[in-house]
Each structure stands twice: as structure tokens, then as C-alpha cells.
Amino acid sequence: MKRVLVTAAVAVTQLALAGVAVAPQLSARLTGDTYLMRVAPLDPIDPFRGAYVALDYPDLNHAGGFTRPPGLGSMDDDTHGDVYITLVEQDGVWVADTWVRDRPDGGTYLACDDRSWQIRCGIESLFQPQDTARETEALLRDGAVAEVRIDGRGNAAVIDVRAP
Questions:
Q1: Domain ranges of the chain
Q2: Strands of 109-113's sheet, edge to edge?
């Protein structure tokens, strides 16, 4: 009987941890508002990671006045942790306005972090079936927008990539 209880407790704990891991993406998908952002291809399909498209957001980059590297860049303040990118609408798409360490009181923003080598917001990859991923890569080369849902806490999820 004791072994059954321990096994059940372990299973429930694992389910809870899985729920915590996907909560930000689920929250954005279920409760978020939709925003369009310009995207470009960042990385081709990697056969070891599966059919996905790595996305670059040129209007969100934090280059700090230097040549724009791929990806969202990094904060140059010798601190690592939470980063919030406030967004403003410009010509029908949403672009970065400011990069701050403290959560904004309101408005539209992305909750990101720069604990690794660059800022990550959870919208850098779009996983798709193999044939669709190749079509999406071709679309990205011609110029596209990503449909991104962002909830009230800045959690974001990529819903779709399409022609502007």
C-alpha cells in the first residue's frame, strides 16, 4: 500500500511540474491578446531538433547602437535576470520601445530573461510539421509577420507566421 502511495505522489508531482513548465505559454495562448510582429529567419531546420523555424524579430533587437546581431541581443548592464520589453504599435506591427529590468505598471510588454547569452522571450521558435516548416522558412525569406499572443503578465506564444 505504501509503495502505491509513493508512486501516486511521484506521478502527481511530475504532472504538477509539467504544468508549471508550460503555464506561461498556456496562459498566453488562452488569455493573451494578438499582436503582429515582423519576423525573419534566424536558423535553418535542424535535423536533430526536429521541424522548427528559429525566428528573429528585427524590431525587438537590443543592439545598443552597434551593428544588429541576430536574435534579440543582450542588456549591457552587467546584470542577468528578468528583462521587460515594452512595445508600441508602428505601421500596423508592434516594435520594441524600451528594455527595462522592472516589470512595467501597464501597457503591452514582453516578459523575457537574459540569464543565457541573449535575451529570450519564449517566442524564438515555431515547431511545425516538416513540410509546413519548409514552407514557413520560404515565407520568412520573402518577409513575414508573426502572430504572437501576449497575456497581461508579458508571457508570449507564437501562434502563426504569415505574409504581411
A1: 2-162
A2: 93-100, 82-90, 109-113
Grid coordinates representing 148 are 504572437
User: Could you report the per-residue pLDDT of 85-127, keeping only the tens digit for each?
Assistant: 999 999 999 998 988 889 999 899 999 888 777 778 889 888 7
**pLDDT, tens digit, 9 for 90 and up, residues 19-36:** 555 556 666 667 777 888
Average predicted confidence (pLDDT) for the chain: 78
Residue 46: is it exposed, middle or buried by C-beta count within 10 angstroms (0-12/13-18/19+)?
Answer: exposed
Range 83-97 burial, b when 16+ CB lie within 10 A, else e = bbbbbeeeeebbbbb
In whole angstroms, give the CA distance from residue 8 to residue 149. Answer: 35
Main-chain dihedrals φ then ψ at residue 40, nearest 5 degrees: -140, 160
Q: Which residues contact 53 (CB under 8 A, 6 or more apart)?
A: 41, 45, 125, 126, 128, 133, 136, 137, 140, 161
The number of beta carbons lying within 10 Å of the beta carbon of residue 21 is 9
